[in-house]
Design brief:
By secondary structure, the chain is mainly β. The chain has one helix at 41-48; strands spanning 2-6, 15-19, 30-38, 64-72. The chain has one helix and four strands, in the order E-E-E-H-E.
């Protein structure tokens, strides 16, 4: 899949548009097929680096997403994959 990510903190110049592997949900997670994504101020603060808050890098920003459930982990029982 394509993603915007950053490997170091900084301004817009640290953003890269790259191919990344499709994620796999852990047993208690779901995977959302993102149809729309927005950035908010949290994404800007994380990109710039937050004092005393370790952010694992590389990081894909996008706090606000909308989409449909694509996969569910083995322990997930309250939702199911969206029908096409």
């Amino acid at each position: 899949m394509k993603a915007i990510l950053f490997r170091q903190h900084g301004g817009p110049e640290v953003l890269q548009y790259v191919d990344v592997p499709d994620p796999e949900p852990r047993p208690n997670e779901i995977l959302v097929r993102v149809r729309a994504c927005a950035l908010n101020h949290l994404d800007l603060w994380v990109r710039g680096g937050l004092p005393n808050v370790p952010i694992p890098l590389p990081h894909i920003p996008g706090s606000d997403v909308a989409g449909e459930i694509a996969k569910v982990g083995a322990e997930v029982t309250t939702v199911r994959v969206a029908r096409k």
